[in-house]
């Protein structure tokens, strides 16, 4: 099975789903996108 990571912003209700094993840069980009 492919790992899936869901990052949710509780204030805006937005979320992003990342498939696979993201590296640090991908995680930071996802968090910046939600901000």
From TrEMBL:
Protein's recorded name: Thioredoxin domain-containing protein
Domain of life: Bacteria
Species lineage: Bacteria, Pseudomonadati, Pseudomonadota, Gammaproteobacteria, Pseudomonadales
């Amino acid at each position: 099975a492919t790992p899936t990571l869901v990052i949710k912003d509780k204030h805006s209700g937005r979320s992003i789903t990342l498939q696979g094993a993201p590296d640090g840069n991908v995680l930071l980009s996802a968090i910046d996108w939600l901000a």
